[in-house]
Write a structure and sequence with these properties.
The complex is a heterodimer of chains A (about 375) and B (about 400). Chain A contains 12 helices and 2 strands. By secondary structure, chain A is mainly α. The longest helix of chain A is centred in the last third of the chain and has 45 residues, at about 325-370. The radius of gyration of chain B is 26 Å and the shape is globular. In chain B, helix 10 packs across helix 11. At the A-B interface, helix 5, helix 8 and helix 9 of A face helix 8 and helix 12 of B.
Chain lengths: ~375, ~400
């Protein structure tokens, strides 16, 4: 662990940017059709429970990141092993997001540039940030959230003013009843993007006021959940559910539909800026967690030294992860949530919480007896 | 230290210059309109209207270009992508599709083959915008529509779009649709697309020459003419005049239009300019069958009378309101009847049934267009309000004996 401190506002901003990151740009919860926005809200509600679990887990091990307190709870060997799995998980997710970013840039802006070059240039920035430490990531977040917020607000104003919103596209609400929507929420939207905040268990120890974690966590999930739901509702009401589900980047199509007063059009740059800011924080946080995690698993004194090698691993993984975008997406929708997110985000933390609560009780009992 | 700086500069130049696949302005040909025809061999014929940038600029400075502001190339192919590849063989520059504003589809193609599958390459391409407007070429080849020069507007594609818009807002017999709207209607079982048409008046050959726009009257002129109705992706009918305006009213796309009324043997004796209107469509389910009610509220000002009408009298205005309402009602009912005869739900009533009654929709979805829509009961209610009469009340000739 490095010696760094971040404020609760910085953590809040970082968590919001992290969750908005890629989720704002890709279609999520599409199986719920025009109720996707509801599925996001439901996923958000379920994520509150996850946040309680993470917070409870951290309470038992205050001041230590996930990979450290795993050793305390599960013992040295098993703890290190599980911590290593978590490092792999973070590396994999970082690579996935990097692939998302690279492909997005390739499809709509740089069709003739090799994926490796785009991803490579981006990962260099990430490596540099991770090398500089968590304080730098947090400060960058503080700076860029203003831009992201301004873009989001002007986007909403432009969309409303240009009269593109057709609320009837959101109808019929709950066509097949509420069950399919809940199913999508529990199958997909709760893990991506909300459940991924588990990575912040690696960052909580740096918080100046540790008592605020629950508040900050819940608040950030609520804010980003409402934002995502609103944006999804806008997507569907502007271009319809059919086109939203067919698009790789529905928000891009929505932004391209804005034609105001004859000159406010082709605002693709909105999408590009949102894309780069959001993806940057997502990859940086994952990469940072992987780097500090790996340092703690292998007992390396200076974690920042790992920034470069792990960055390279992320880069290479992002290239070989899938042979085409459809494969990448279908893995992301069909395999990752159930077989990767569920164990790492729900089962393992719950299991750890149970063990920790027993251990803690025993400890406090023995302390009482003494 | 010096070495580090040198290293940084080298790295910076390589990474920050960002010219991986640069395209200079002198390397690209900006396409402003694209026309799609089909030839006898069954191949697509694409006609690309390319902006002749130099002449547009000189025109703005008052010089008036000596050459045409556009150049037109055409190419054939089995698919749209192949067509655009073949066009490259005739063009010194790379085609640049980001600024295509208009897509023209020929009547022949729309009638015989249908438009069901031609949009995919445009939808898929990151360069093409799905907000590109679409028109049909009527009684002429699509190619001719993009070849003709227009007066006032330098760029013909711009001219067509502006004509379409002004006709929609001022006349109310055309609709402006883009690729997105068409794809949406084509895929939805409860909606069929409508596309406005343009036709060419005059000699098409001379319309291509720059001399054509140097005189006060054009040798060849483009003109909005009717709305094409589609069924299962194929053009089946043209709507004109009252049928067209009734349709546009029911689609809630009317913005400002002029309504006329006959009065005591005088044809079109009263002209009302509609300032604002609102069309509301509601659906009820009556014993498993949908019933549509259309409610229109429109208000406007009197712009012209040809009769000795005393417009200072509220009763007369109310009478005008009532008669206009009745006329509009029949106009809309006729338009709906026409659509029902065509078995083509261009109003998207089916989509509304789906949105409000998804359970019932499942049962009638399969044969909505052929069975349920033609039998659909539609109730039209109109409310017209005359608000002002301009600067005067009685016309100046009201004292004439």
């Amino acid at each position: 662990m490095e010696k760094a401190k971040i404020s609760s506002y910085q953590l809040f901003v970082l968590m919001v940017l992290f969750q908005l990151g890629s989720a704002l740009l890709v279609p999520i919860g599409m199986e719920a059709k025009q109720d996707a926005w509801l599925a996001i809200l439901m996923g958000m509600t379920a994520a509150f429970i996850l946040m309680y679990i993470y917070d409870g887990l951290y309470r038992y091990n205050e001041g230590k990141p996930l990979t450290e307190f795993l050793k305390d709870i599960l013992g040295n060997f098993l703890g290190r092993f599980v911590a290593f799995l978590y490092v792999l998980y973070f590396v994999y997710l970082a690579a996935r997001v990097l692939r998302d970013l690279g492909v997005a840039l390739l499809t709509f802006a740089y069709p003739f540039t090799p994926l490796f070059v785009v991803n490579g240039i981006f990962i260099l920035v990430v490596i540099y940030t991770v090398y500089k430490g968590v304080e730098v990531i947090a400060r960058t977040g503080e700076l860029l959230v203003v831009l992201e917020f301004l873009l989001a607000v002007t986007f909403i104003i432009l969309i409303v003013v240009s009269g593109l919103i057709q609320v009837s596209n959101l109808k019929p609400v709950l066509e097949e009843g509420v069950l399919p929507v809940i199913k999508v929420a529990l199958k997909e939207t709760v893990y991506f993007p909300f459940g991924e905040v588990i990575v912040f268990l690696m960052i909580f120890p740096y918080l100046k006021q540790p008592e605020k974690i629950k508040k900050v966590g819940i608040g950030s999930i609520a804010l980003s959940g409402i934002f995502l739901s609103l944006f999804m509702a806008i997507n569907i009401s502007v271009i319809g559910i059919n086109l939203t589900a067919r698009s790789h980047y529905p928000l891009l199509t929505v932004i391209q539909s804005i034609e105001l007063t004859g000159f406010l059009e082709r605002l693709d740059i909105y999408f590009l800026v949102l894309l780069v800011i959001g993806m940057f924080f997502k990859i940086s946080v994952f990469a940072y967690a992987a780097v500090t995690g790996a340092a703690s698993v292998f007992s390396i004194k200076k974690p920042s030294r790992l920034a470069y090698p792990i960055g390279m691993v992320i880069l290479l993984l992002s290239i070989v992860i899938a042979s085409n975008y459809s494969e990448h997406i279908s893995e992301g929708v069909n395999i990752v949530p159930l077989y990767i997110h569920l164990p790492f985000q729900v089962i393992m933390p719950l299991f750890l919480l149970v063990i920790a609560s027993f251990k803690y009780k025993k400890k406090s009992k023995t302390a009482d007896e003494k | 230290m010096n070495r580090t700086i040198f290293f940084l500069i080298v790295i910076g130049t390589i990474l920050l210059s960002g010219c991986w696949n640069k395209r200079e302005l002198t390397d690209i040909a900006v396409v402003s309109a694209l026309a799609i025809d089909k030839n006898e061999e069954g191949k697509y014929v694409g006609t690309f209207q390319v902006i002749n940038a130099g002449n547009i600029a000189s025109g703005e400075q008052g010089g008036g270009g000596e050459n045409a502001p556009i150049r037109v190339f055409s190419a054939t192919g089995e698919s749209l992508i192949q067509m655009s590849r073949n066009a490259a063989a005739k063009m010194p520059r790379q085609l640049f599709y980001e600024h295509v504003k208009l897509l023209v589809i020929s009547e022949e193609l729309a009638k015989n083959e249908g438009i069901n599958t031609i949009f995919d390459s445009l939808d898929r391409s990151p360069n093409f915008r799905i907000t590109t407007r679409v028109v049909l070429a009527r009684d002429t080849e699509a190619a001719n529509v993009v070849k003709v020069l227009t007066a006032i507007e330098k760029l013909p594609s711009e001219g067509i779009i502006k004509t379409l818009k002004s006709a929609e807002t001022m006349q109310g017999e055309t609709v402006t649709v883009d690729i997105h709207a068409i794809m949406n209607a084509l895929r939805s079982p409860g909606k069929e697309p409508v596309i406005s048409a343009f036709t060419l008046k005059g000699d098409e050959k001379s319309g291509e020459r720059i001399q054509s726009i140097q005189s006060t009257t054009l040798d060849a002129n483009l003109q909005a003419k009717g709305i094409g109705v589609f069924k299962e992706g194929k053009l089946i009918d043209w709507l004109e005049d009252d049928a067209a305006s009734g349709t546009v009213w029911a689609l809630n796309k009317i913005q400002r239009t002029v309504m006329t009324l006959d009065w005591e043997n005088e044809i079109d004796a009263v002209a009302l300019e509609v300032i604002r209107q609102n069309t509301g469509v509601t659906i009820e389910m009556i014993s498993g069958k949908p019933k549509i009610s259309i409610e229109i509220r429109a208000e406007g000002d009197i712009r012209e009378v040809k009769n000795q009408l005393d417009l200072s009298h509220p009763n007369i205005l109310m009478n005008i309101e009532k008669k206009l309402g009745k006329k509009l009602k029949t106009e809309i009912e006729d338009a709906i009847l026409r659509a029902q005869e065509n078995k083509s739900d261009i109003f998207g009533f089916g989509e509304m049934v789906y949105q409000d009654y998804p359970e019932e929709w499942k049962k009638i979805k399969a044969d909505w267009q052929d069975v349920h829509f033609p039998e659909l009961k539609v109730d039209v209610k109109t409310d017209i309000f005359v608000r002002q009469t301009g600067l005067r009340n009685k016309p100046y000739f009201s004292d004439f004996e």
